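Suppose you are handed a protein chain with no further information: no name, no annotation, nothing but its sequence. What can you learn? This example shows the usual starting point.
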Amino acid sequence: MNAGPPEEALDDGEEALQADIDEFVTLDRKGPWKLALLVARRVTPGEGTGVRIDRQPRSGLHAFRRISAGEFARRASANPRRVIALLDAWNRLAADGVVPPAADLRPDTTIEPPDTGEYPFYGKNGYYRSWEATGLSTERRDAVEKEAEKSGTRPSAITYVMTHPTAVKTALLADEATRKAARQALEEFEARQAAADAEDRAAAAEVAGERQREYDSEQDDISRAERDAYAAQAREAGEGSQAGASRTSSTPWPRSAWPPRGRWRC
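A reasonable first move is to predict its three-dimensional structure. Written in C-alpha cells, the prediction is:
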C-alpha cells in the first residue's frame, strides 16, 4: 500500500505571529501600569488592609464596588503591601498630571495605561517603589534610598538582598567576587564609622572647650567684681581715716586740759 503525500502544515500566517508579538510588546510596555490601573480603580484609597466592601454611588443609579487593599490582595492571592505599592505608584503618576487620581476612577471610564518608555514603572526613576512592598521600616527604607543614590543602584535590588539573608550567605560561600564585595563594603563601613566617631569627638571637644571658656569668663567676671569691691572698701576705709584725723587736728584742747602755769619750764 502506497503512502499518500504528506499533508502540508498549515501556516497561521505572518499576521497571527505579529499579533502575538504586538500583544507581548503591549504587556511588556504597559502591563505594569495596567496592573496599577486595576488596583487604583477597585481599591479604596486609605482603606488600609481591612476587609470591608463598599458600594460607591456615582452619577444616577450607577454604583460600583471598591474594596480594601487587604481584600483585593486576598482575592488576587497577592501581597497586600504590593497592592498598596501599586496604588501609590498610580497616585504618584496622577500627582504629575498624567492620569486621574485613584479616587476619581470609574470602571466604565476607558483609560489607556501609560507607556513605561515614557513614564517608567520600575527602576531608579520609576514610579513604583518595590521596596515599599517589603515591609521595611521607614528608617531602613530611608537608608536604602540614600545608599542607592550614592552608588547608582536600584533601591529594589538593594531591598531584595536585604530581605533574602539566606541568599546573601549562600552567595558569600559560593562566590569569591561576592566575598570581595562584602569585604570592601565592610572596610568602607568601618571607615565611615571611624570618620563619624572622629567628628563626634571633635564636636564633643568643641562643646567642652566652649563650656570651659564660658566658665573661665564667669570666673574672670567674679574675680573682677571681687577686686572692685575690695578696692571700694579700701577707698571707703581710707577716706574715713583721713576724715577722722582732720577732725582731731582742728579741735582745740579745753582749758581744763591745759597744764598748770609754771610747769612749762624745762
